[in-house]
Specification:
The complex is a heterodimer of chains A (about 110) and B (about 120).
Chain A (H helix, E strand, L loop, with lengths): L2 E5 L2 E5 L4 E8 L3 E9 L5 E6 L6 E3 L2 E6 L4 E6 L8 E9 L5 E3 L3 E6 L1
Parallel strand pairs in A: 2-11
Antiparallel strand pairs in A: 1-3, 3-8, 4-5, 4-9, 6-7, 7-8, 9-10, 9-11
Chain B lengths: L4 E3 L2 E4 L5 E6 L6 E7 L6 E7 L2 E4 L8 E4 L6 E5 L8 E8 L11 E2 L3 E5 L1
Parallel strand pairs in B: 2-11
Antiparallel strand pairs in B: 1-3, 3-8, 4-5, 4-9, 5-6, 7-8, 9-10, 9-11
The chains are: A mainly beta (about 110), B mainly beta (about 120).
Chain lengths: ~110, ~120
């Protein structure tokens, strides 16, 4: 059975801290791993990773994939209160288009 | 429209009642997905449409759940004889192509929060 596991499940930090969110997966026929941010509404797309070792970066957020060890990390530097959200990791297989999600990491950034 | 829209945003139903949840995908998007998100959990796949064809319904939890997309645009998820365990957020997502391109992602709507009493 396909499995996506995120850790930690929740995290509380202060503004300015750097955080690392983890996502490990066990799926057959892996195609890509995606990160989404969810703030009490629609999940919004952050990154898609298909190749190992290539960092994707957008402002203070960055992510990288390790296909050998079957995990990905999402880094957020200089956190702001607006970063408070649930961060979802999802995997897509080569067959089909559905996504398999992890439970999410609830990040709270306090001022 | 600019994004995926869903209605209603909130629905309270009495146990045993039938409900219908609507999804308007981004105009021109061929692929449409429904996901169920229980409180504190990640979304779980329910079903997938390519235009009007329902190509995958393996995630529907029981025969009380039924989805349709008769004209290949708007989709409706119907839940018959609702149970308390059906309480969740129902998310709809769409994508331009089918099957999705390698670098293509899904765009999500805001969801319908269903509470069954």
């Amino acid at each position: 059975e396909d499995k996506v596991v995120q850790s930690p499940l929740s995290l509380v930090v202060h503004e300015g801290d750097t955080v690392t969110l983890n996502c490990s997966y066990e799926v057959t026929n892996f195609r890509s791993l995606l990160w989404y941010k969810q703030e009490k509404k629609a999940p919004t797309f952050l990154f898609m990773l298909t190749s190992s070792g290539i960092e994707k970066k957008s402002g203070r957020l960055s992510s990288i994939l390790d296909k050998k060890e079957l995990f990905s990390i999402l880094n957020i530097t200089a956190t702001q209160t607006g970063d408070s959200a649930v961060y979802l990791c999802a995997v897509r297989k080569t067959s089909g288009s559905r996504l398999t999600f992890g439970e999410g990491t609830q990040l709270t950034v306090n001022p | 429209g600019a994004g995926v829209s869903q209605s209603p945003r909130y629905k309270v139903a009495k146990r045993g009642q039938d409900v219908a949840l609507r999804c308007d995908p981004i105009s021109g998007h061929v692929s449409l997905f429904w996901y169920q998100q229980a409180l504190g959990q990640g979304p779980e796949f329910l079903t997938y449409f390519q235009n009007e064809a329902q190509l995958d319904k393996s995630g529907l939890p029981s025969d009380r759940f039924f989805a349709e997309r008769p004209e290949g645009s708007v989709s409706t998820l119907k839940i018959q004889r609702t149970q308390q365990e059906d309480s969740a957020v129902y998310l709809c997502a769409s994508s331009f192509r089918a099957p999705l391109g390698v670098q293509e992602t899904q765009y999500f709507g805001p969801g319908t929060r269903l509470l069954v009493l």
